[in-house]
């Protein structure tokens, strides 16, 4: 099967690598062209723009940062994938963007008999590397089934939520949940340290109880070491929160935790921390507690 992969960032590049290793014929394109080089060495073809990448593709997989980026690579009237995709082909968008924009783009593609599945993912860079992402899908049952050969390579838990746009709604819910979990973990570890307990032993203890979570297992050490490599960029989570909060206003649902954390993230981004992993929410709590930069040690 011939695939085009558009967007080779923290998530897209390892997804493309796994698809190459799985035997797909992959053509890649990225705005920063140098990111294509390592995949070319693995056997991918490189394309000068999204249209060229999509020209012979049966499925296009996109994974970029924000709604305007998706609109550009898919719908640009000169170099967008829509200009070369053939009727009957399929777009699978793994970006996290606005549900209504997703529906609008799907309608435009459907006018040319091009299918669409919104398939945002969760699981961080680790999940992308190991092919164990959680994939939340919106689209027709037919398009969802057509996407399975690709989705099964990039993810280990794949769920169709409903029609187009529902994958993005599920991703919003996911981002609201992790908002509270990251913030609560930062508070808990700082509190334990300040109160005189060994925070590493606290992590060991609470991880076996109700407080156990993927975030505790995979991000507590970043908070304790005060070191925040990616992961998932804070500024991208803030973008996702903006989508969730706008939707919450539209449907009149209060979102006090997400609103508070959005304000904290704005402050961290203003201080230059937007490109760190979002576990750097711990910076806010640590600084508020007067803990100097560096590892928290018993």
Characterise the protein shown here.
Helices cover 51% and strands 13% of the residues. The strands form two sheets. The chain has a six-stranded parallel sheet, sandwiched between helices. It has a three-stranded mixed sheet with strand order 7-8-9. The chain folds into two domains: 2-163, NAD(P)-binding Rossmann-like Domain (Rossmann fold), CATH 3.40.50; 169-288, N-(1-d-carboxylethyl)-l-norvaline Dehydrogenase, domain 2 (Orthogonal Bundle), CATH 1.10.1040. It has 13 helices and nine strands. By secondary structure, the chain is an alpha/beta fold. The protein is globular and about 65 Å long. Strand 2, helix 2 and strand 3 (45-46) form a beta-alpha-beta unit.
The level-1 CATH class of the largest domain: Alpha Beta
CATH superfamily of the largest domain: NAD(P)-binding Rossmann-like Domain
Count of strand segments: 9
Radius of gyration: 20 Å
Instruction: Report mean pLDDT, rounded to a whole number.
Output: 97
Q: What percent strand?
A: 5-15%
What key phrases describe this protein's structure?
N-(1-d-carboxylethyl)-l-norvaline Dehydrogenase, domain 2; three-stranded mixed beta sheet; globular; 298 residues; 13% strand; alpha/beta; 2 domains; six-stranded parallel beta sheet; Rossmann fold
Provide the fold topology:
Layout: E1 2-6, H1 12-21, E2 25-29, H2 37-41, E3 45-46, H3 50-54, E4 59-62, H4 67-75, E5 90-93, H5 99-110, E6 115-118, E7 121-122, H6 124-130, E8 133-138, H7 141-154, E9 155-162, H8 166-195, H9 199-206, H10 214-225, H11 234-250, H12 256-270, H13 281-288
Parallel strand pairs: 1-2, 1-4, 2-3, 4-5, 5-6, 8-9
Antiparallel strand pairs: 7-8
Helix pairs in contact: 1-6, 4-5, 8-10, 8-11, 8-13, 11-12
